[in-house]
Design goal:
The structure is a single chain. By secondary structure, the chain is mainly β. It is built from three helices and 19 strands. It has two domains: about 140 residues, Sandwich (Immunoglobulin-like); about 120 residues, Sandwich (Immunoglobulin-like), CATH 2.60.40.10. The protein is elongated.
Length: about 300
């Protein structure tokens, strides 16, 4: 009788241990082993455009007992990196929202990346992986960006990749949207600008600007053009995509100037700006020469 009771107790103990182990394995150990990324409240900084990155793999991992997750892994580093520890955050931008996830596993050794880019700062911690709960991913696509914090400061850049979700799977596509907000000082102006804005509107949560501009009396081959959105609270500077405008050169042929590179387009995500009315300005730099002009155009950012 005692022997049967002992067997029963031993069997019960084994079952209890198995249950505890199962709970640990499926709910506790799994979260730690997979480094489930936490959604954090963070203001996305102005892009510094100095992070190089590559997403090597994304996939959906399903589970009967745990929440489904999206796995993402790859590498990212800031220019001239020397710091051997850092904090890195994954930024996912949808059409009308932005989420930031803390990537805990963000200092993985990647000496192959160091070697490929011939980095000499002594840091190899460029790798990362993370698991994003699918409960947080409600939109059909997200553009991907990274925030890096280290001893030297905080840096942020959007990649040219986006996540696309369809039929329970995820794939990585190229993003046609260029993250173009820049942080540059506005030099004192020395020259005048001539310009024409042919399109300037806000639709689909994006500001769309197209036109041409140049510093008077100068060829355009060495000019750098920016769009500036300005109101009483904000001065936001954006780079442009240059367009060839031979028609402008022809129109001003009496000047003898080459204005072929005076054309530009600029698409700005409205979600990165506070709601309000902004005046559209043009800023052009060519070496030590600079020009700034307030146009007669305004855009209303509506949330």
């Amino acid at each position: 009788m005692k022997s049967k009771k002992a067997v029963t107790i031993a069997l019960g103990s084994i079952i209890l241990i198995a249950v505890i182990f199962s709970v640990y394995y499926f709910f506790i150990r799994d979260d730690k082993g997979k480094n489930v990324a936490k959604l954090v409240e963070m203001t996305v900084p102005v892009p510094t455009q100095n992070i190089t990155s590559n997403i090597e793999e994304v996939m959906i991992e399903k589970s009967m007992l745990k929440k489904d997750v999206m796995m993402i892994k790859g590498w990212a580093f800031k220019q001239n990196v020397k710091e051997k520890t850092r904090e890195m955050y994954l930024v996912l931008k949808a059409e009308d929202s932005t989420m930031v996830f803390d990537l805990e596993n963000d200092n993985l050794p990647r000496p192959d990346v160091t070697k490929y880019f011939k980095m000499t700062g002594g840091a190899d911690n460029h790798g990362f992986d993370g698991y994003i709960p699918l409960d947080n991913l409600k939109d059909s696509s997200y553009r991907i960006g990274f925030i890096i914090k280290d001893a030297s400061g905080q840096y942020f850049s959007m990649s040219q990749k986006k996540l696309v979700f369809s039929d329970g799977s995820v794939k990585l596509n190229d993003s046609k949207f260029l993250e173009n907000r820049v942080s540059i000082p506005i030099q004192p102006t020395t020259d005048k600008i001539q310009y024409n804005l042919e399109k300037c509107d806000f639709s689909g949560n994006k500001v769309n600007i197209r036109g041409w501009a140049n510093l008077e009396g100068m060829n355009t081959d060495s000019m750098k053009t920016y769009i500036v959105l300005k109101n009483t609270k904000t001065t936001a500077v954006f780079s442009v995509v240059v367009e060839t405008r031979k028609d402008v050169t022809i129109y001003y042929k009496k000047t003898g100037l080459n204005l072929d590179l005076s054309g530009f387009t600029c698409m700005i995500e409205g979600g990165d700006l506070e709601a309000g009315k902004y005046q559209v300005c043009i800023y052009i730099v060519s070496g030590s020469v600079a020009g700034f002009i307030y146009s007669h155009n305004f855009v209303d950012i509506v949330k």
